[in-house]
Every structure is written in structure tokens, then in C-alpha cells.
Amino acid sequence: MVKEGSDMAKDITVHKSFSLIEKFSKNNSLTANEKMLLKYLPHKVQNIIWELHSSMMFPIPYCFSAIMTAVSGSIANSKALCTQNGYIVYPSIFMAIIGESGENKSQPIKWFMRPLWTRTAEMLKDYNGELDAYLKEVAKGNFEMDKPKKVQFIIQDATIEAIKEILYENPRGLLVIFDELISWIKSFSRYKRGKASEEGEWIVICDGDSLMVNRKGDARVLYIKHPFVALIGSIQPYVLCDAFKGSGMEDGLLWRIFMTYSEHPASPILWNDNKPDENLLNQWSEIITAILDQSFDADYDCPKALRYTDNAWTVIRSWQNMKEEDYTANHSQKELSVWRKVQVSVHKISICLKELWKACGEDVLEIGEGDNGDLPTDDDPLGNENFIGMQMALAATQVMDYYLENALHTLKMMTDMFPGVLTQGQKIFLKMFPLEEFVSRSAIVDHAVKRGMKQRTIDRYLSQLRGTMLECNHGKYRLTESGKMAIYGGNR
């Protein structure tokens, strides 16, 4: 991420569009994360969130995450981002709304998805009418009519088998909503003895890679070129950690999921007399259907390509380089693995923010093209119709820092709840550390070598245990609470 004080940050002035409406800017009860998430939304959307937060007590991070998922599912396969280093990324978002029971997790999902359900009902009504007419003609012996095609773009609590069938018939893609995300997780093979793994198929879908479908009793093999799914559901923290404990922490799918927590988990949810503006849902419906409508006219085999401007790509690349160097040098192997799974999702957020701003008509489309062909210049901070500008890229990196922070929080919870089994060698190594004080790397290496450990073993233990059993701060190490418990239990 481009940080204030860095050389690049000095050259970047936050665009006037990225500002909090007065209601938010003067509200001292909002956390830094809440203000950051709101700042990068159009003012129309900020106002919708404020009304829902004030009247219905919807947590702001839950609203933001539900919006990102709704936008993702509305874009679907109509657009893809082509990066400067050759990657093609689709805006497929898998979102987990995480909170304890009663923390108002489900209501924001239902509210922001309501216009999409309404549109689905209208389309299914039209389809059923066309199908009735078709069947009547067939009954008369008239086979000249084409059978109408059922269009589905949103479903609920579906199995992977059903989703693959629908994706084959609907190449645009799907938005899948789970009332309880654990019902999706439990469909994976480790909960089903004797069945082939479904987790790998979900990774393929999340990454937008091609999918082959073999159906029972059918010799045909279905080929889905771009199997797009956006997915959202709520889950409790312990349930999530328990579902992925042990080897699940190493799964590629877990860290592809965007995770969001309420910033005020202890706040009481008090009934009040406030009522949201009656036009609020209409306002949101206009925004999300503007994104949805354009997706039905797209070529799904060759979606419209979005690109970063050169300056935007510099922001994205610098953010990734800085994070990669930091996580390689200063974090545990598990944290490094999480970062490497999360990093590519910055492109998905870039696409969703871009299309949301465009649908709201706030500044993005007012920016013209530069002198170098169709590539915008430095004067195009947000981008134009086909490009994502440097300010939108900067917004995406800061939003991804938030989701990365949540992923690492989840990793820590899982490690604390289920610390795993240490080898005898790891236990001996950890016992060389004092209970409270930090100790330098050179000091612990000297001590371990004198005890007969080889240098490569010491390096491996430091990498494996850093961030879980060992805390690292400027090259010095000490035992974490998990490390103390794993070695000494309650006898300290």
C-alpha cells in the first residue's frame, strides 16, 4: 500500500470524490476502518449506509461487504481486468460475514440483495409465460418456436452439482446466497466420506478457470469456459475456525474468502423509533440494476476488458512489492501463505469499486482521455470508461489491507483455539526462550547451536513458529501466549 510519508504518497493527492459526507466525518463513534471503508464509496451509497446504520443498526463493515458482493454478482462475466503483467481477473467475490449470534449479520445481506431478488422474480415470471406459450404450440404440433431459455443469476443454498448445471445454461454467472455459510462449508468432501473433493472445484470457480462437468448417466462432458460465482453468507467465529481447523488452515479456499467483522461487537442493538427513508431501497435498486442491466448484453466468452492506467498499476505493484517484502522478512510462514492467497483479490475490489462509482455517476465518467491514445494520463485519477485510475487503485489497496487484517485475525483465532501438535524438536527449541523478554535472533541461534541444533533446523523452526508460537519485533523474538501455553500449560 502507498503510505503517507512515502515518496509515492507525496505525489498523490486524495481525489475530491473520496470524502466522507458530513454525517460521518463528524461522528466520533466510528472506527478508523469504518471511516476508511465509507470514504471510498460514492456519496449516494454512503448516505444509504448511514440511514441503515442509524435506523436499523446495520454494522457498517457488513453493509460494505454486502455491497461489494452484490456488485460482484451484478457484473459477473460481463467484465474482466487485464493487468499489466498478463493476468486476467474476474470480479468473483466469496464473502463471509462473521459475528456472534444476534450481531445483525443476515439483515444487511437480505436488504442489499432485495433488488436482485425482485429482478429475478420478474424475469422468471416472463420465462414462465413464454414457456407456457411454447408448450401450447408444441401440443398443437407446432415445433417452429424456439424453446425459451431460463435466465438465473441469483440462487440460494444450492449444491455444487446444481450450480454447475445452472452455470452451463447461464454463462453470465451466478450470485449464491447462503443463510448460514456453514451449510456451504459442510458440503466439502472432508465432511462427506467416500465422495470426491468439491473444494478444488470451488477454487477453480473462484479463480475463474475453466471447468469440466461429468454428469451421471450422461455421456456428454459439459465445458464451462468462465464459471463465475459470487457468494455470501454469515457465520459465527468459532464455527468458522472449527470448520477449517487442522489441515483446513492450509486450504487454498479458506484464504480466498473475504472476511468481515463488526467493528463494535459489544454494542447493544437497541430498538428505536427511527425509520429509514422510504425511497432508500429505490435509490439502491437504481444503482445496482444499472450495473446488472449492462451485464445481460455482454459477450461472456469475450468479456469487456478493463485495464489499469500506468500510474494505477504502479500503485498496485508498489503495494504488492512492499507487502511481499514485509511478509517474507517479518511474518510467519502461515501469515505469508495467507498474504499470498489474499493479494490477487485487490484486482477484484478494483473492478467492483470502479463499476459502483460508474453506476452512481459521481465523477468517474467526467474524466477525459489523455494524449497517449486511449490510455489516461496523470490527470485522470479515477480512470475512464475502460481504465481504472491511480486513485481507484489506491482505494482498492486500502480496502484490501482491511480484508487482509481480518484474514490474519481469523488465522490468529484459529491458532489460539486449535494450536496443533508441536514436534519434540519444536518444544525443545521453544523452551530455550525466556518467558517474557525479547531475545535477539543471534542470541537464540548461538544458544541453540551450543545445544546441538543445526543452523538450517533453527531457521526452519523460526519460520514455522513465528507469528503463532513466537512473536517477532525488529529481529527479536519472544514467546506468544499460545507458545507459553503449548510448552508450560498453566504451570508458569
Give a structural overview.
It is a single chain. Helix 11 packs across helix 14. The longest helix has 34 residues, at 106-139. It is globular, with a radius of gyration of 25 Å. The strands form four sheets. The chain has a five-stranded parallel beta sheet, with helices on both faces. It has a domain at 424-488: Arc Repressor Mutant, subunit A. It is of the alpha/beta class. Mean pLDDT is 84; it is low at 1-7 and 364-379. It contains 19 helices and 14 strands.
Short summary:
With 492 residues, the protein is an alpha/beta fold. It contains 19 helices and 14 strands. The strands form four sheets. Strands 4-5-8-3-9 form a five-stranded parallel beta sheet, with helices on both faces. Strands 2-1-10-11 form a four-stranded mixed beta sheet. Strands 12-14-13 form a three-stranded antiparallel beta sheet.
